[in-house]
């Protein structure tokens, strides 16, 4: 089995590091030449840096650093999308082998036609793609014939440098059939439950993630997980970015909580009109995430502070899109989009 992780950012480094560390000590993987784990970074500079320095991985902020030297682990490779030859690991030769499974850990704004074209060159006819992004895509970017699964994770990861990552929060990962969300040809017949593994790519991934220490589950109803996470992000992310506060500080006043509730009520009204399942319990989930990640800088605030583009179009913008689909208004979410987009030119760059 060959797993490609695309994106050497926070989430990509987290999944790669934990999987590689587990493969290193598990004879099922370290002995099996047929299994491959490949991290694809965007730049050659990052790939070279990792090949030279390895990855410094921490299981938590104050936890010891594990040094991981990918090329010393059988089957593990690191290369860049912009490289066609794995120069620093010449014994591995030219990377021509196609992936069986691609874990896509880039951000929503990185998914564009060039990346799709590059992915198509990494795929054989049965390759599965698992999208790990927050938010929701309502465009039809994925070619209809592709088997695209959806991953939703509440794990937290923070890249400290191109070669170091910390597992900043422990959560759960759900993987499910993306056909209803993406309109792709994804089929979900390969694995049943975590207890009843069947042979297949998804089952292999779930088993590998579990052995690596993640809580990973096959979801028969991935949509509910997607919309639950979408709601959490649509309430927390833009407000933390606009007010420049940590997640916990959202709960500091009744006035802030009232605005959060307005975003929540508007989102669930949009879901209701679209016949999308939702739960009142999600409101408590939002409050709980604020408490559990109180000192965290949300990803949107981090993007704004670092002058990067944000995922607003696929978070609040997705809710506005769903509202338009049933001809209703979602003014609070529209305002979030406009306010985030209209941050100064440098910030929105
Ligand atoms: N971090 C977290 O805790 C969580 C993140 N998520 C979601 O996961 C996704 C990724 O988040 P995160 O890891 O934090 O983001 P990062 O910005 O840390 O990582 C994204 C990575 O994708 C790389 N990239 C961009 N374009 C390409 C390309 N064409 N080919 C290969 N790599 C590319 C970037 O490279 P470069 O740096 O060189 O530009 C960057 O390293 C987001 O949608 C986020 O919302 C979900 C749950 C938790
Ligand atoms: C859940 C939350 C808000 C945690 O920070 C997150 O996913 C993000 O920052 O994007």
Automatic annotation (TrEMBL):
Pathways involved: Cofactor biosynthesis; (R)-pantothenate biosynthesis; (R)-pantoate from 3-methyl-2-oxobutanoate: step 2/2
Annotated Pfam families: ApbA, ApbA_C
InterPro entries assigned to the protein according to its UniProt record, in alphabetical order: 6-PGluconate_DH-like_C_sf, 6PGD_dom2, ApbA, Ketopantoate_reductase, KPA_reductase, KPR_N, NAD(P)-bd_dom_sf
Reactions catalysed: (R)-pantoate + NADP(+) = 2-dehydropantoate + NADPH + H(+)
Domain Ketopantoate reductase C-terminal: start-end pairs: 222-341
Keyword NADP listed: yes
The protein's Enzyme Commission number: 1.1.1.169
GO MF terms, alphabetically ordered: 2-dehydropantoate 2-reductase activity
Domain annotation Ketopantoate reductase N-terminal: ranges: 4-178
Gene3D superfamilies: N-(1-d-carboxylethyl)-l-norvaline Dehydrogenase, domain 2 (1.10.1040.10), NAD(P)-binding Rossmann-like Domain (3.40.50.720)
Free-text function comment from the UniProt entry: Catalyzes the NADPH-dependent reduction of ketopantoate into pantoic acid.
Name of the molecule in the record: 2-dehydropantoate 2-reductase
Organism: Paenibacillus hunanensis
